[in-house]
Amino acid sequence: MKIDLNTPDLIGSKEASLMWGKQKDYVRTIYNKYPERFPAGTIRKFGKQIVVTREGMEAVTKREAKYTLDEIEKG
């Protein structure tokens, strides 16, 4: 099985939080308090970094992203 780490569907927790119009620590807080809200395989912790999929964010927030990653990076 090949996994494409360059896919735009894998997002760092801070970026994902901001893309969905939430506070920058939203994903980390929800994951630490209610990890069961994320469907299996949609979120993973690597050391201190949390990576979440678009599917995971849509499941937790019940909506699509408010902003694109490009919009977040431009500020």
Describe the structure.
Helix content is about 40%, strand content about 15%. The protein is globular and about 30 Å long. A hairpin with a 2-residue loop joins strand 2 and strand 3. Strands 1-3-2 form a 3-stranded antiparallel beta sheet. The longest helix is centred in the middle third of the chain and has 8 residues, at about 25-35. It is built from 4 helices and 3 strands; from the N terminus they run βααββαα. The mean pLDDT is about 95. With about 80 residues, it is an alpha+beta fold. It has one domain (about 10-65). It has helices at about 15-20, 25-35, 55-60, 70-75; strands at about 10, 45, 50-55. It comes from Pediococcus acidilactici DSM 20284. InterPro entries: HTH_59_Firmicutes_type. Pfam families: HTH_59. This is Helix-turn-helix domain-containing protein.
Topology:
Elements: E1 10-12, H1 13-19, H2 26-33, E2 43-46, E3 49-53, H3 54-61, H4 69-74
Antiparallel strand pairs: 1-3, 2-3
Protein name: Helix-turn-helix domain-containing protein
Domain Helix-turn-helix: 8-64
